[in-house]
Amino acid sequence: MGEVLGFLVVELYGSESESFDEVYYGQYISFYMNRIFFLDDSGPPFGHMLLALGGYLGGFDGNFLWNRIGAEYTSNVPVWALRLLPALTGALSVPLGYQIALELRFSHCAAMGAALLLLMDNALITQSRLMLLESPLIFFNLLAVLSYLKFFNSQKHSAFSLRWWFWLILTGVACACAVGIKYMGIFTYLLVLGVAAVHAWQLIGDQTLSNVRVFCHLLARAVALLVAPATLYLLFFYVHLALLCRSGPHDQIMSSAFQASLEGGLARITQGQPLEVAFGSQVTLRNVFGKPLPCWLHSHQNTYPMIYENGRGSSHQQQVTCYPFKDVNNWWIIKDPGKHQLVVSNPPRPVRHGDVVQLVHGMTTRLLNTHDVAAPLSPHAQEVSCYVDYNISMPAQNLWRLDIVNRQSDKDTWKTILSAVRFVHLNTSAVLKLSGAHLPDWGFRQLEVVGEKLSPGHHESMAWNVEEHRYGTSQEQRDRELELHTPTQVDVSRNLSFMARFSELQWRMLTLRSEDAEHKYSSTPLEWAMLDTNIVYWLHPRTSAQIHLLGNIVIWASASLATAAYALLFLWYLLRRRRAIHDLPEDVWLRWALAGSLCAGGWALNYLPFFLMEKTLFLYHYLPALAFQLLLVPLVLQHFADHLCRTQLQRNLFSALVIAWYSAACHVSNTLRPLTYGDRSLSSAELLALRWKDSWDILIRKS
């Protein structure tokens, strides 16, 4: 077995150019090398950090443009180091499968069969040879299951021993690592928690244990399987945020406070700003929601058209929009309605929650206004404008009450960057809101801002925060316009705590949804089980050598049949046991049920949820489920041999069929080898011969 695993690692480095998702993960590795902040909604940062660690140990400086599949790697990219972790975890998954079968009390022969299936499957080999995260995910999934089984099996004879604690804690660590690599890891975590909960329930009913002993057992499990994984998960983000301390291309997705905590970017702009907003302050107001684009409250000289395209009329007041770029027209002055001055007094009078304010547009000096006129694209809401006095019967309605959403008390002051605020219109109770709709050409395709009545619940599109801020000192308009272009002077530090940054980053990762365009190699879960799809990972730029994510069709089809056979047998035994007919001894039945819970349950939990997901899916999403399914195959085969073959002749015949089946799987694995390793060019005839299904996309170069 060791020689085979060594061969798997040695055979890792066939292609020296970018492959499929290596382009995707490579850019994040470069960000780590340069300590540039990024946001990836595909999963937590632990997997990315592991790949980056390989690059760091290999001396990668991050200088490579990850923009094209098939591009040749330059000499400064340590390909072997970047692909080393997936290779090691892919290789180590094989002995883990062997050990899991043994811990389930199946024979060495069945355990060897499970290991061989993990070793021979072409899709698992392909995935482990490239800079991808499915192999580490599968490794930690299997490690979590193995650790729990070893802990469970040591329960009766060595509870609370050093060995017992080691396997229990390692279970929690492995679960945290699986979730930390990809959110898919939570399926295996739930599997382990479910099995552990059943065993804990049985433990509670054990009358041989004292109450104190039972409590200690439950506390140990809670600490190791709940507290430890949560702590480790936080640690992943702590290291991630500590490493990525510089401003990057994904900054604008985050809040102003988060951006200001990064070196460069907004931090450079906001350094030195006053903390408390006062009457007379000059501010830019960023919408907290930031969808569909991060944008700032904006106005300009242009007015709403008298008549819209649909025939509705407008107020013809000055347009107010949300503009997704920095601009001098984003500046507003916070005015006290009872005073005419537009400068900050000495000492400054801070604005507090509940205060009534007016918002004066810095460049045009017109006041933010709303009234009972339908908004241009959202007729159910009110139009927001800067008031122009046309000397008609439409008086100004420009008073707004400040509502600090994240206040600690009703006496809180309005703080730069930190405070999320709502502006509630005094006359109509409408709240200033970003609708998200793009205005037509007359509005320069900027985003619509409306006034809308507040409904129950928290609406981020109604919340705004001050991003740039200065204390205004110029009363004259010409001097004030010059002042709006000058940098701030006073220095105030406002670093976010780790938990605040973690909470925001985690929320953005969970709610951020990029547009899921249809991909050439996307597929549905129904296509995975019978291998009706594949993915071309790499094509040699000059020859027909290519790498495909393509499973061993004999193994995949057999795994599906074994799963169905297990389900039918389990239901049959269960029904007969209900009728007090015990076909299996109690210990064999418990072993059979536990094997199904972990292997068939692991397959179901890692596969069935994809039917409910509205996202672009690929064949590699099935691999964690497949790993569990492959473990089930030899267990079902052994059960057939031990309990369903009645005579020695039947057992011998069945063993011969199993050997023939393994030989066929090995032959298929070797036949598909050129598409797994991409180490040699094939003729058009050879490539056509490997297209066993019409749905497989095998690339054939035209002569």
TrEMBL record:
Pathway(s): Protein modification; protein glycosylation
Keyword check for Transmembrane, yes or no.
yes
Q: Which InterPro entries match?
A: ArnT-like_N, MIR_dom_sf, MIR_motif, PMT-like, PMT_4TMC
**GO molecular-function terms, A-Z:** dolichyl-phosphate-mannose-protein mannosyltransferase activity
List the transmembrane segments: 46-66, 78-98, 132-152, 164-181, 186-204, 224-245, 549-572, 592-612, 619-641
Q: Its catalytic activity?
A: a di-trans,poly-cis-dolichyl beta-D-mannosyl phosphate + L-seryl-[protein] = 3-O-(alpha-D-mannosyl)-L-seryl-[protein] + a di-trans,poly-cis-dolichyl phosphate + H(+); a di-trans,poly-cis-dolichyl beta-D-mannosyl phosphate + L-threonyl-[protein] = 3-O-(alpha-D-mannosyl)-L-threonyl-[protein] + a di-trans,poly-cis-dolichyl phosphate + H(+)
EC top class, in one word? transferase
Q: Where in the cell is it found?
A: Endoplasmic reticulum membrane
**For this protein, what is the EC number?**
2.4.1.109
MIR domain mapped to chain residues: 274-337, 348-405, 409-469
User: Does this entry carry the keyword Repeat?
Assistant: yes
**Top-level lineage group:** Eukaryota
**Which terms in the GO cellular component ontology are assigned?**
endoplasmic reticulum membrane
Recite the UniProt keywords alphabetically. Endoplasmic reticulum, Glycosyltransferase, Membrane, Repeat, Transferase, Transmembrane, Transmembrane helix
Question: How does the entry describe its membrane topology?
Answer: Multi-pass membrane protein
Instruction: Relate the protein's function as given in its record.
Output: Transfers mannose from Dol-P-mannose to Ser or Thr residues on proteins.
Q: Which family does it belong to?
A: Belongs to the glycosyltransferase 39 family.
Report the protein name in the record.
Dolichyl-phosphate-mannose--protein mannosyltransferase
GN (gene name): Pomt1
